Amino acid sequence: MHELSIATAIVEQAEEIARADGTDRVTTVTVRVGELAGVVPDALHFAFEVAREGTALAGARLVVEQVTARAWCGGCAAEFDVGMPPFFWCPSCDRASQDLRYGRELEISAVEG
Ligand SMILES: [Zn+2]
C-alpha cells in the first residue's frame, strides 16, 4: 500500500519538526494533499494509525487539508478548476492549458505538540 510509505514519511518528518521545536510528543499533524497527488485520504488515515505506533506521534491526530486542482490559462490570465478526473481545458476561452498550479501538493503544513 503506497499510503503506508507516505504515512511513514509524514511521521518521520513530523518527529523531526517536533524535535527541532523541543517537543517530544505531537498531538496534531496537518498535511496538505492535492487532488491529483494520488493519495486516498481514508487510506492515508488508516496508514497513519499504523505508522505512528511507537513514535512521538503515537497519540497524534492526522488532519488532511485537500487542495483543489487548479490550472493557469495564459490566454485569459485566469485560473480554473481542472476537476477530477482532470480536464485541462480553460472554460473561459475554450483552449487547452496544461499549466497545473495546484493539486500535486503532499506536504506537512503544521505540527502541534
Ligand atoms: Zn482561458
From TrEMBL:
Protein's gene: hypA
- What Pfam family does this protein match (any one)? HypA
* Gene Ontology MF terms: nickel cation binding; zinc ion binding
What task does this protein carry out?
Involved in the maturation of [NiFe] hydrogenases. Required for nickel insertion into the metal center of the hydrogenase.
Q: Which InterPro entries match?
A: Hydgase_Ni_incorp_HypA/HybF_CS, HypA/HybF
Describe the family membership recorded for this protein in Swiss-Prot or TrEMBL.
Belongs to the HypA/HybF family.
Its name, as the record gives it, is: Hydrogenase maturation factor HypA
Q: Which residues are recorded as binding Ni(2+)?
A: H2
Quote the record's binding site residues for Zn(2+). Answer: C73, C76, C90, C93
Keywords, A to Z, come to: Metal-binding, Nickel, Zinc
- Taxonomic lineage per UniProt? Bacteria, Bacillati, Actinomycetota, Actinomycetes, Kitasatosporales
Gene3D superfamilies xrefs: 3.30.2320.80
One GO BP annotation here? Answer: protein maturation
Native organism is: Streptomyces yokosukanensis
Which PROSITE patterns did the record assign?
HYPA
**HAMAP family named among the record's database cross-references:** HypA_HybF
